[in-house]
Amino acid sequence: MNSMTQAPNLLTTKHIFIVDDHPFIIQGYKNAITRYRPAEYEFLIDQAKDCQSGYNMITNPETHPFDIAFLDISMPVYEEKGIFSGEDLAKLLMESMPNCKIILLTMYNEILQIKTIIKTINPIGLVIKNDLTFEELLFAFDKVIKNEKYYSQSILEMISQLEHVTIEIDQFDKKILFQLSKGTKVADIPQYVPISSSAIQRRIGDLKVLLKLKDASDEELVKVAKSRGLLL
User: In what helix (H) or strand (E) does residue 49 lie, and over which residues does it extend?
Assistant: First the structure.
């Protein structure tokens, strides 16, 4: 009688986090992930539907650290905690779970926004959703699992043009634009952005000059900022 027993096949467990406000997109990601090398990996998948539920999941002390996070950039905001996009969730993850590999996904294809994302987040994955097929998602996931960067084709094309792009804005400018887009009066913006009224007015003027809108209204500033990818 053979007393030797076969060792169990131990799977590598990966904890995945998906944040998107479209349930069918989350399901698509889950379908692809669970088909990736099922004989080698076991995936534990958590999901959230907006900035607030994403924030709550990340900051919950009982949450196991994520290995990989898929974050949609444009989602319903969590203004109370200053979380306005998937970029802000990515920054929170970088602080609280520094080993998490971040994949940002967006429908936007504005080069200025892409430049800002690469500079501030430098994600291991950056994808224009329109580039993403089921097979391409599996390919991207394989690259990230192997700790290799994956940027979709549209992103690569924009990166090739980045050296010609000089417009950049900071987080205060983004928050000011966001409040203007909501219809907040300029005099009331200091309630949401921790700088003085005079500094806010100066920044609005600088933004108009930057976008060649010197004599334009605040509404026109918001419209152009959105078209240029400076406001989600």
Answer: none
